[in-house]
């Protein structure tokens, strides 16, 4: 039972940064923009949040600084892709490389000393419940906030006029522009939100999940978040389920190594990435489902007429 609880709670925690980053990218892609720079934005969020904690700033302020660092990086992408209409694939890849370099520069003097991690919440009575307490009521605030954001984004996209406008923009920006909506401005807002979420994901990695600084500590989680959006066929609930799936694979490979399974450690470490490839291959076989939810104008540049 203790092993089950450890795997369950570890899965929820490991999935949290993926939930933040993938939900942010989901909103971006729903607007018709493709930002491949999640890895770079996460690294910048991680570096600046860690720097803020080391500087003695309160934990909530440090997390906010990490989120703003991700948003600032996404603004650079927005200028390139939305104002100058550069290729979105190239701009996103450039941002991923840029973020990696900036984070390495910021973190060059951090060393490997750990910091005091974001503490789990102590919920009276509930935290002390047998079995249910450690499984549901002993996480930190950012884990619970991820669920709040999931509910808020789902409601926004499918229950509000603004969400409908955003989704329409992802299908036909020309139509949205023709009826008077500021397509470029709204896409900028979506891109900034995606960067903010990626920054939160990175901040969670450096101040909660792994409370120490390691260069390139995201280890491909930004790319997995991109794959999650496709796996989810651009639907929030599937993003959540997919994040738990990949989080579970991460924890299983750690538990497998701890239990001494007779498998090469390199194979166990590759499990989350192998799962990503397998799932994407299976999803790509169902072209009808992909086409049904795929934003028609994704990654296509748009310049307002006149």
Describe the structure.
By secondary structure, the protein is an all-alpha fold. The chain has a single domain (2-293), classed as ABC transporter involved in vitamin B12 uptake, BtuC, CATH 1.10.3470. The protein has 14 helices and no strands. The protein has helices spanning 2-30, 38-54, 59-83, 88-106, 132-136, 141-159, 161-171, 173-178, 183-209, 221-231, 236-258, 265-269, 271-285, 287-293. α1 (2-30) runs antiparallel to α9 (183-209), α2 (38-54) packs parallel to α4 and α10 packs parallel to α13. The radius of gyration is 20 Å and the shape is globular. The mean pLDDT is 90.
Key phrases:
306 residues; mainly alpha; ABC transporter involved in vitamin B12 uptake, BtuC; 14 helices; cell membrane; ABC transporter permease; transmembrane; transmembrane helix
How much is the average pLDDT?
Answer: 90
Query: Which CATH class?
Result: Mainly Alpha
Radius of gyration, taken over Cα atoms and rounded to an integer in Å:
20 Å
Question: Whole-Å distance between the termini?
Answer: 65 Å
Number of helix segments?
14
- CATH architecture, by name, is Orthogonal Bundle
């Amino acid at each position: 039972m203790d092993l089950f609880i450890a795997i369950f709670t570890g899965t929820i925690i490991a999935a949290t940064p993926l939930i933040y980053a993938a939900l942010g990218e989901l909103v971006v892609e729903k607007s018709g923009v493709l930002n491949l720079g999640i890895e770079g934005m996460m690294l910048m969020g991680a570096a600046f949040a860690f720097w803020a904690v080391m500087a003695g700033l309160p934990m909530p302020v440090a997390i906010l600084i990490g989120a703003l660092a991700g948003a600032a990086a996404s603004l650079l992408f927005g200028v390139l892709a939305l104002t100058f209409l550069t290729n979105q694939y190239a701009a996103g890849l450039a941002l991923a490389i840029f973020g990696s370099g900036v984070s390495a520069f910021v973190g060059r003097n951090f060393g490997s000393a750990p910091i005091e991690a974001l503490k789990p919440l102590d919920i009276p009575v509930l935290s002390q419940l047998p079995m249910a307490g450690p499984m549901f009521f002993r996480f930190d605030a950012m884990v619970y906030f991820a669920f709040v954001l999931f509910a808020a984004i789902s409601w926004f996209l499918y229950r509000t006029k603004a969400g409908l406008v955003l989704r329409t923009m992802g299908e036909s920006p020309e139509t949205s522009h023709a009826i008077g909506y500021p397509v470029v401005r709204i896409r900028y807002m979506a891109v900034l939100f995606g960067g903010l979420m990626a920054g939160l994901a990175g901040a969670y990695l450096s101040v909660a999940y792994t409370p120490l600084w390691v260069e390139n500590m995201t280890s491909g989680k930004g790319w997995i978040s991109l794959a999650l959006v496709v796996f989810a066929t651009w639907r929030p609930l599937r993003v959540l389920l997919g994040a738990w799936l990949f989080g579970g694979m991460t924890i299983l490979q750690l538990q497998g190594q701890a239990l001494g399974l007779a498998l090469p450690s390199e194979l166990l470490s590759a499990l989350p990435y192998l799962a990503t490839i397998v799932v994407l291959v299976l999803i790509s076989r169902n072209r009808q489902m992909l086409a049904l939810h795929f934003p028609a104008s994704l990654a296509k540049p748009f310049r307002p007429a006149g």
